[in-house]
Amino acid sequence: MEDHTTSRLGATASPLGEPLLTATGKRADRDAEAQLPPYRSACASFARTCLNLTNAVSGIGVLTMPYAVSRGGWLSLALFALVGAVCYYTGTLIARCMRADGSIATYPDVGQLAFGAAGRRTVALFMYVELYFVAISFLVLEGDNLDKLFPRAGVELPAGYRLRGKQLFIVLAGAVVLPTTWLKNLGVLAYVSALGLVASAALTASLVWAGVSESGFRGSGNVLNLAGLPTCLGLYFVCFTGHAVFPTIYSSMRNRERFSQVLLFSSVLCSLNYGLTAVLGYLIYGDDVQSQVTLNLPSGRLYTKIAIVMTLINPLTKYALLVAPITAAIEERFSLAGSGSARVAVSTTVLVSTVAVASMVPFFGFLMSFIGSFLSIMGTVFFPCLCYLKIYRAKGLRRVEVAAIVAILLLGAFVAITGTYTSLLDIIGTF
């Protein structure tokens, strides 16, 4: 989940259902361009594209990997490899869809090419909803980890109400990022968000440090837990949710024929980091591992502070990028575009709503599982497969390929149904 949002802006900044391209394929939304780093010029080298794509795929899902293994057991790591392979394949399907029409620049464009205006609206809607929930998960992450750094913190408010712990820090995090949501040009934040790669590396290094010098390795754990597989699979899909950004990065490439190589490199690199974090976290903490492995690190240690601080920086820099497409769509819907005061009012309202929801969500892992099971599955499995089948059906497809796509769709349906049901039960059960 979610760090692919940097370039996702290009896929969602237009109003819901409104094409980014006219019939001649020339129209471009200036606000969307202002919010994006300069990816659209087709001059990005192989190395830069690898960096961009790795930054897009690598995200806060790494924090939940040990917890995911604890829910599914050691053998679930085989399913993690399967999920990675499936997401790589569906990513290549998006690239093939883009080759079918040179005017395609965003993910909703792919939906429109396949299914017309209804396809564009459906793709865009799910992307907006996913962005909203990922923004909420960022605030939950901030609250949980700051509460660990500063335990028992609290403030007295009028009318005798006391704001403390996680809720206090969620409100403070919201106050910190609020001014960034008022900006029209978010390009600087897009570049700062590349710190996510550093944060992931710092987290893995901290777990190695913890295992060697402090906690030791338990070397135990469940081999397989069938009851936890739906939650586990949902969390695995969150790790590879970056498909909405693929069209933007594909368009930025100097040599687009090498996109599949870039995607393979990025997927393998992220998988190694995710896998190493999962194994280390579960070996050290076993079934006691929390939904964010940083919460298991012992308080007061230098590596704990480094891991938490680096983990916290990334969401703070990316929150504005996540909600900007949502606020832009609201402004367009109510004809408020171009008004600075309207932007401030709308973005503030969106932020306040995410702070309120985040304060009521008690467990980060359950929320991430819901995002992966319901929202990420749509963007990583259903949309790429269905659009590809629709676009290339007339040109003829090999039976083996159709069979593989059908199998992927069935897997996606299983995860979507069971994972969404399980995660919602878990969330409801915590209230």
Keywords:
globular; 70% helix; mainly alpha; two-stranded antiparallel sheet; 16 helices; 431 residues; 1% strand; Amino acid/polyamine transporter I
Helix content: over 70%
Output the CATH homologous superfamily: Amino acid/polyamine transporter I
Domain tally: 1
Secondary structure category? mainly alpha
H/E element string?
HHHHHHEEHHHHHHHHHH
Radius of gyration: 21 Å
Strand tally? 2
**CATH topological fold name:** Amino acid/polyamine transporter I
Q: Give the strand order of the largest sheet, numbering strands 1, 2, ... along the chain.
A: 1-2
* Largest β sheet strand count, sense and barrel closure: 2 strands, antiparallel
Domain Amino acid transporter transmembrane: 45-423
Pfam family, one: Aa_trans
Protein name: Amino acid transporter transmembrane domain-containing protein
Subcellular location: Membrane
Description:
By secondary structure, this protein is mostly helical. The chain has a single domain (45-429), classed as Amino acid/polyamine transporter I (Up-down Bundle). The protein is built from 16 helices and 2 strands. A two-stranded antiparallel sheet has the order 1-2. A hairpin with a 5-residue loop joins β1 and β2 (162-164). The longest helix has 43 residues, at 107-149. The model is unreliable at 1-41 (pLDDT under 50).
Overview in brief:
The protein is mainly alpha-helical and 431 residues long. The chain has 16 helices and two strands.
